[in-house]
Amino acid sequence: MKKVLKNVSFVFLLLKMCIIFGQESSTQKRILIDVGHGGKDSGAIGINGIQEKDVTLNIANAILKLNKELDTPLDIYLTRYTDTLISLSDRSNLSKALKADLFISLHCNHSDNANARGVEVYVGDKQSKYLDESTWLAFQLQTTLNKRLGFESRGVKFANFQVLRETMDYCSAVLLELGFLSNQDETSYFLRPDSITSLALVIWECLIENIKSYERIGD
After folding, report:
1. pLDDT, tens digit (0-9, with 9 covering 90-100), for 99-128
2. Of residues 15, 82, 35, 61, the one with CA closest to residue 200
3. Inter-residue contact 44 to 181 (CB < 8 Å)
4. For the chain, percent helix, then strand, then coil, each to nearest 5?
5. Fewer CB within 10 Å, N side or C side of the chain?
6. CA distance 151 to 144
7. What Å distances lie between residue 183 and 113, 151, 205, CA to CA?
8. pTM of the model
9. How many other CB atoms sit within 10 Å of the CB of residue 151?
10. pLDDT tens, position by position, 2-45
11. In this structure, is the dihedral angle defined by the CA atoms of residues 218, 75, 208 and 42, taken in order, positive or negative?
12. What DSSP designation does 219 have?
């Protein structure tokens, strides 16, 4: 059955953010958005040749643009700003160098099953003082993407991904698998600029709303 994914209202979001900003402290939280793949590493290649590296960069740039347009409590950096290949270790090392409060890695999924769909959120599977905060944020992201945009929830999962393993000793860290490029409906969604904007808005809003969840332990 065809499922229609939703867009969100920017005006409504701005009004909501005004209330949230008034309730938060002025201390900025540093967020490193890890833009999956890049350069010769295209990542998943989906229907009509859509490439994961392009989708993740489009989403990350939309989040960055939105954050720059408003006076927010988020200080956002990207692991790559162009179609460049960055090693996994360099991505993790950057989070340490920046003293990031949160590392969020953006990816898209792929399956041989054309009906596979939905969002998965991953947390590292080793012990860390940031494990609880990472897990809590992962559930918030999963729920928000489902309620606001209509993406099916495939669950919060634990995995030994290198970027999570090498980052979670320094800050909270999650990895998002944002839908399947092998699914016709979800690929069509990613091909629309307004959909990319909506997805960026919802991720950014979730980070703003849950900013206190990644307060540094010991601060």
Report:
1. 999 999 999 999 999 999 999 999 999 999
2. 61
3. yes
4. 45, 20, 35
5. N
6. 9
7. 8, 12, 26
8. 0.87
9. 23
10. 566 767 654 444 444 444 444 444 478 999 999 999 999 999 99
11. negative
12. -
E-strand ranges in the chain read: 29-35, 74-78, 102-109, 119-124, 153-159, 172-180
CB 158 within 8 A of CB 123: yes
For residue 174, how many other CB atoms are within 10 A of its CB? Answer: 27
- Give the Å distances, CA to CA, from 194 to 5, 58, 172: 12, 11, 29
| Residues taking part in catalysis | 177
Measured CA to CA, the distance from residue 83 to residue 113 in angstroms comes to 28
Residue 164 tokens read as 């999570």
Which amino acid appears at position 7 of this protein?
Answer: N
